[in-house]
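Figure caption, in words: inputs first, then the predicted bound structure.
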Amino acid sequence: MPKLAVVYLSTTGNTKLMADAIADGARSRNVDVEIKSFYDWKPEEAAAADAIAIGSSTFHYTMLPPIEKFVDKLLKAVANGKDGAAFGSYGWSGEAPTMIAEKMRIGGMNLLDPVLRVQYRPNEKDLKECNRLGKDLAEKIKN
Ligand SMILES: Cc1cc2nc3c(=O)[nH]c(=O)nc-3n(C[C@H](O)[C@H](O)[C@H](O)COP(=O)(O)O)c2cc1C
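Bound structure (flavin mononucleotide present):
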């Protein structure tokens, strides 16, 4: 079965809610989904999935160094043309998801639109969009 890896950094659970909704969306389209905090993923292990969604909240107008290091390691291990998505909750500037998306593009991944950014805690509508993104990722890797 094709596999989606969902990786997130979330300090108060906002980005995790997005990650959970992406995972649920993909599962509803019958792909294998593994979802974990980046602390619990080995970058090479996530890189081996058929598609990878990476989410992070924004701190001090950027992504935190540990998730940046994780993404860089993952991209060294990933095959060109693999499908990916970037997402994250933010407060006022929201750079992290855009930075992750840019790194994925430069790293040779095929990035799905949209880069999903949600201000603070995702609402019902935001979670539906996350769910949709999960379904889109699943359809991509099933084809
Ligand atoms: C110390 C600190 C610094 C932050 N800096 C930013 C920032 O520069 N830009 C921004 O958009 N949000 C910033 N935020 C807001 C968080 O990104 C926001 O609370 C987000 O919803 C947290 O999501 P999480 O629970 O997934 O970590 C900051 C929050 C804290 C506590």
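The first strand starts at residue 3 and ends at 9.
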